[in-house]
Amino acid sequence: MYKPALRLDIEDKINLTDYEWKCIAEKGEIIKLKKNELLQVQGSKCSHSLFILKGAFKTYILSEKGKEVIIFFSFENEWICDHESFYYQKLNTYNVKAIEESEIVIFNEVNKMLLLELVPKLVEFHIIMIEKVNFALQQRLLDVLTKTSKQRYLEFIERYQHKMKVISSRNLSSYLGVSHEFLSKIKKESTQ
Fold first, then answer.
1. Residue-wise pLDDT tens digits, 66-76
2. What's the Cα-to-Cα distance from 174 to each of 115, 148, 189, rounded to whole Å?
3. Beta pairing partners, 45
4. CA–CA dist 61, 70 (Å, integer)
5. Cα–Cα distance, 128 to 131 (Å, whole number)
6. What separation in angstroms does the CA of 18 have from each of 15, 28, 119, 130, 133?
7. Low-confidence residues of the chain, pLDDT below 70?
């Protein structure tokens, strides 16, 4: 059941009354996705915000040559939303795909806007989440610009050790911005 995980995540940032939680719980819809199922397609319009109950996702773009460039991985108890598309009615910048069987709570655009009216303190929650996303993007950029591929790899496996079985070498090499062969070399050096 999604209620405990979602409520804990929200209440980690703001306090909720039982009535406010009831409003939120009623507006979320649970959806199950299969491995490799697309949740969002680059160039379409985003109409939802989602919370991951179980599973893992990759957020990526397709280069002009059709190659996947992975920007982020997202796991349990994290949120996914293309904010620019959601709030400014622009087309999605990213593709989002399940990399393992997953379960999410999804809030469509209408319900999310209604919740902001019914539970005004969700605006504060939303601001906190936007700041968190901004920090993550800044950190990702700094890591790419200032750290070696090996440093990024070691930090990644330390942070996501519990998910390394679901992240393919191809996906990890794309995220790190290195070839599959170079990733193999990094892995080999790291185990010596």
1. 889 999 999 99
2. 37, 15, 19
3. 91
4. 7
5. 5
6. 10, 16, 11, 25, 27
7. 1-3, 192
pLDDT in tens, 132-177: 989 999 999 999 999 999 999 999 999 998 888 899 999 999 999 8
**CB-based contact 12:4 (threshold 8 Å):** no
Question: What pLDDT, on the 0 to 100 scale, is given for residue 128?
Answer: 93
State how far the Cα of 72 lies from the Cα of 18, in Å rounded to an integer. Answer: 34
> Could you give the CA distance from residue 68 to residue 77 in angstroms, rounded to a whole number?
25
- Give the dihedral of Cα atoms 181, 186, 189, 191; nearest 10 deg: -110
Segment (H or E) for 144: helix 122-146
Best CA proximity match to 101, nearest among 60, 53, 59: 53
* CA end-to-end distance (rounded Å), the chain: 43
Of 112, 143, 139, the C-alpha closest to 49 is 112
Q: Please provide the size of the chain in residues.
A: 192
